[in-house]
Each structure stands twice: as C-alpha cells, then as structure tokens.
Write the structure tokens for this entry.
Amino acid sequence: MQRQSHEMFDAASIPDDLSAIGTVLSPMLPGDWRNARPVVDREKCVKCAVCWVYCPAQCIVEKPRWFDIDLSVCKGCGVCAAECPHRAIAMVEEAA
Amino acid sequence: MSEVLTRPRVVVCEGNEAAAIGVALARPDVVAVYPITPQSSLVEHLSQMIADGRLKADLMNLEGEHSVMSALQGAALAGARTFTATCGPGLAFMFEPYIRAPGMRLPMVCALVTRDVMSPQTVWGGQQDAMIVRDAGWIQMYCETGQEVLDTVIMAYKIAEHRDVVLPVNVCCDGNYLGYGVTRVEVPEQAEVDAFLPPPDVNWHVALDPARPMSVDPLTGGAGGAGPRTFVRYRKGQCRGMQEALRVTEAVHEEWFERFGRRYAPLVEEYRLAGASYALVTIGSMTGAAKDAVDAARDRGEPVGLIKVKMFRPFPLQAMLRALGQVRTIGVVDRAVAYGWNCGPMFQETLGALCRLGRPMPAVSFIGGLSGADITQDHFARAIALTARALSGDVPDGPVWLNEND
C-alpha cells in the first residue's frame, strides 16, 4: 500500500455529526462471510498463478512452493477452484 | 469589485433578474445551470453578467439538472461558493444529488422559481415542486417581493455557511408572479454586501483537497457494528442544523436590517393580528393581494389578520405558535396540494402546530394559484368570509378550491 503524501485530515477538529468522512484506512475483511473455504493441494500446485489472476478479492498469497489463500479476506466465492487448471484447489464447507 | 456597482442603485426588474443581481453580489465561484421555464431568465441574466465580466464566476452549462447539482457538489467540496436555480421537472431530474446535499452538509444556495407539477401538462407557477421536496433536508425560504428575493439570496449564503447550520438553502420565488413580475428593486452596494457576507467557508468539514486527504461520504449504517449509531449521529446532526437555522436566520435578518434598512419577518410575519379574531395564513407572493384583502376587510370592521410563513423548512414552530395564539380561527391558503390529506400542505403542517398550542380551533384549507392561476384580492375576500363563518362553527368539509370556477 502506498503511503499518503499528506497526513490524513484530523477529524477530531470538527463536530462528529456533520458529514460522514473517512480519515482512517479500514480494509474490509470479508473472511467471515465465507461458507466454503478453498484448500490448496500443495503437491498438485505448480504455481501457474491462474488463481492469483482470477481471484476477485485479490487474496491469493505466494508461498515458496505453492500459492495459498489469505482466509481473512477470502469470501469463499470458489472462482479459484473453478479456474485452477490442475484441480489443485478444493472448496471445503466451513463448519457451522 | 465594481461589477455590479456600474448599475444604478435602484433598478426596475423582474424577480428573476433581482435574484441574479443578488447572486452576483454574493460573489459565487461556480454557477452551474440548465434552463427551465419559468426559471430560464434568471440563468440568462447570470450568464450575461458572467459573459460581460461583471460577475467573475465559472459558468457551467451542463446537459441536465442531475449534472448541475453533481458538479456543484464537487465544486463545493473543493471550496467554492456555488449557485444554481431550477424548478418543476428540472428539480425532479435533480432529485438524486439534490437529496444528498443536506446529508453531506454542503452549504449551497439554489433558487426554486416554483412551478406546478405535471401532469396535467403545465409550464406555469405554483409551489407543488418545492412542497414535494419539503422534507429533502434543504432549508426553504419563500419570498413575497422581488426586493425580498434579492435580499434573501444574499442572506441565504450567510445562513447556509454559518457553522451552526451548514445546510443547503432553497430560496423559493413564485414562478411567473415573482419571477416575471417587474418591480422597483434597490441594489445594495457591493462593498456593503462584502462587509455583510464573509468569503466562502464551505469545505472546512468535508473536502476534496489533496492537502487534506479524506474519503467523502463513506458507507455508514446497516444493522451491525457501529453502523446504527453512526448513521443516527449524522441524521441527528442534520436535525440539529435545521433547528439551529431558526435562530441563525433570525440573527441574519436582524443584521440585514441594521446594515441595509430593510426588515423582513425571518420566520413568520404577523400582519394586523392585534385585535384579530381570525387570520389567513399565507406563503410567498400571494401575500401582497392577501394583505390588501385584509386591509379592505378591516376597513369594514372585520376582525381579520394575516400570518405569513417565510421559512417553511425548518418549520418555525415557536414563531407560528406565537402567531396562532392570538386568534381563534384560521384559513390557510396553499399554492399546492397534499394528496395524502386532501388539503394544502401548509394547512396540514399548521394543524400540527395547533396540536402544540393545546387549544383546538376551526381551520379551513384553501387551495389556489395552481398552475399559474391568479389568487386575486376577490379570492382572498372569499377566503376571509369563509374563515369568518368557520369562526362561528360552519367549517367546510374538505378544501376550498379558490380557482375552480375561474
């Protein structure tokens, strides 16, 4: 993430019931929306990066020998499992 | 500095030009417009002033009112004092960004040269358009004369930009009657207006400014986390700003009187209420003919007075209660319809105020002046007679349509 070239505006200097403004970065972490999680079979993964390209939440992270999933961000859409040309990703239902 | 000073100090002009002169004296930075009857001559006058170099503002001729309001919101967020004017179908097309301005607390000024709403097809005056948006969150002030239009446009900026208010203002000017009506108008000196109206102060709290990075109007609300209380806090803030506007509007009108010598009732005008048993309630330019009718009735010994509403949003409850408390029956004359209640909208709101008075009284709803119809002194004489009958217990069942036989 790029650093801001200016300090963020100090919202404490204005009444807190005027306009809604955002001055603190609060990344959305939709991992708790998920009802199925992608699980990577490290033996089948060849690091082709197709999952990395397709993931709409951009939550694929690179490991030394495979690609894995940032589960705090992944919302379980299953696009990576559907696109993986090596069938290396399985969708596993989350426990209730 | 001298752009408007080159005019004579007294001019004879239509209300739309009076509004344009007021706008020029308030020195907006950005004016965005789309023409629509009966507002068009207002923006033509402004465009001419800018073309002639008498008003140093950026003029944006946009492809529609939705773009007009959107562009002005961007300009306001960048710190500009802004102006536009619209009405009727134009206001309808503007609605989506229009209802966003109050919640973003953008202190803009937009004149509504009010027009009735089609269908039936109409291009003429009426207050239906402004009344439809009465709870969009904009401040609404309805003017009686061309002079009041000019003066109120300038005062509107001071009210909107007051840090206890920070809300957009509609200056409502009856289409055709005030907009096209030609009257004598005194033009204040630019230097005096400059002393009255400080430089723009519109984006101290929310801004598009690389030096003060922030996200503008992020998502709030919802059912979880801090959503509900966050949203409620901002909504309550809007309501607080509206209530503060009552006090600020009174103070700004008082300062206007001190500096320029013209006094207007900022919220509610009490006209010949002393000794009155009953009163008409009026709004906007109809009030002139109504006052003449009241004077004539008083000459005949009728105990009638008049209550004029200038500020309709926020509704001036306390000022209204002070006026209503002096009479025993009212006849409310609306230039619009409240379909949901089969009466005029101001009538329905006056009933709401009456509930707070703690003393019921007979009340009659009159609806007149729709789609350009004139409400003459004779119409008001009839309204006075029917209100007098209501005082003795004969209250009409349903609204009285003043122009239905015209």
In short: The first strand of chain A starts at residue 21 and ends at 22. The mean pLDDT of chain A is 90. The interface with chain B takes residues 4-6, 8-9, 11, 14-23 of chain A (CB under 8 Å). Strands of chain A lie at 21-22, 36-40, 60-62, 67-69, 89-93.
